[in-house]
Write a structure and sequence with these properties.
Protein name: FMN phosphatase YigB, HAD superfamily
CATH architecture of the largest domain: 3-Layer(aba) Sandwich
Order of helices and strands: EHHHHHHEHEEHEEH
Helix content: 40-55%
Shape: globular
Strand order of the largest sheet: 3-2-1-4-5-6
Radius of gyration: 18 Å
CATH topology of the largest domain: Rossmann fold
Organism: Sulfobacillus thermosulfidooxidans (strain DSM 9293 / VKM B-1269 / AT-1)
Distance between the termini: 23 Å
CATH class of the largest domain: Alpha Beta
Strand content: 5-15%
Number of helices: 9
Length: 240
């Protein structure tokens, strides 16, 4: 029997929402900035992507997601922080299955956490626009000094039981390294992106559970809870 709330962490972009920072802030800024340059916004974005990938390959994982510093480095200009937008702008970017999942999380003994490779400066405005900052127990971004799949990004969440995310190379691998039950949310059958894959990762790794929609989580948790808690106890015994 569960004697405490179940702690579940979720990824943000691709798991709960369709990248609001990119769609509502960074891309519009690039389009505006490109009007005074000879290159298109797409070309400027490609340069930024290349710089981000270069930083990842150098082991500078946190810096790879610091878009303000990347803009300053490449274009010698200031990229402003996003502000809290109108709720109506953010709502269309929320995956429909998220609402039932959130309702379940507040009605079931669950503490829900956010763990993202994005900077929370870039993510929090959209959480606030939706009121999700009142639902989440905590949120962790690259400002922590770590990014998935580094397992240390999960260290700030005591008794974390489950992590849900859409990226094998980030979410599943990071959770497995942290001895957390890893749920892969595979919304479609598109091939897995491999950018940012940790060079020390194993050639093959598999999620503990693969789902196609967050609507599957309540029944999955009910079915797998004994296994999750038993494995958690086993991991703790190994640690001590």
């Amino acid at each position: 029997m569960l004697t405490r709330p179940l702690n579940i962490s979720c990824d943000f972009d691709g798991t709960l929402m369709q990248n609001p920072y990119w769609r509502l802030h960074l891309k519009p800024w690039l389009i505006s900035f490109s009007q005074s340059h000879r290159q298109s916004w797409a070309q400027l974005w490609q340069l930024m992507r290349q710089e981000s990938l270069s930083r990842l390959q150098k082991g500078q994982s946190t810096e790879a997601y610091d878009w303000k510093d990347i803009v300053q480095t490449l274009f010698q200009t200031h990229l402003p922080d996003p502000v809290v937008p109108p709720r109506a702008q953010v709502l269309p970017l929320v995956y429909p299955d998220v609402w039932d999942f959130l309702h379940w999380s507040v009605s079931y003994p669950v503490r829900l956490h956010l763990v993202t490779n994005g900077f929370m400066t870039n993510q929090l405005p959209y959480l606030k626009a939706l009121g999700w900052d009142k639902i989440l127990a905590s949120w962790t971004g690259s400002e922590s000094g770590f990014t998935k799949p580094d397992p240390r990004i999960f260290d700030g969440i005591p008794d974390l039981d489950v992590h849900i995310g859409d990226r094998l190379a980030h979410d599943v691998l990071g959770a497995k390294r942290a001895s957390i039950f890893a749920v892969h949310l595979r919304r479609n059958d598109v091939g897995e992106e491999q950018d940012g894959l940790d060079p020390l990762s194993p050639a093959h790794y598999q999620a503990d559970l693969t789902i196609k929609t967050l609507k599957e989580m309540p029944q999955a948790i009910a079915r797998l809870l004994p296994n999750i808690m038993t494995r958690k106890a086993g991991w703790l015994c190994k640690e001590f």
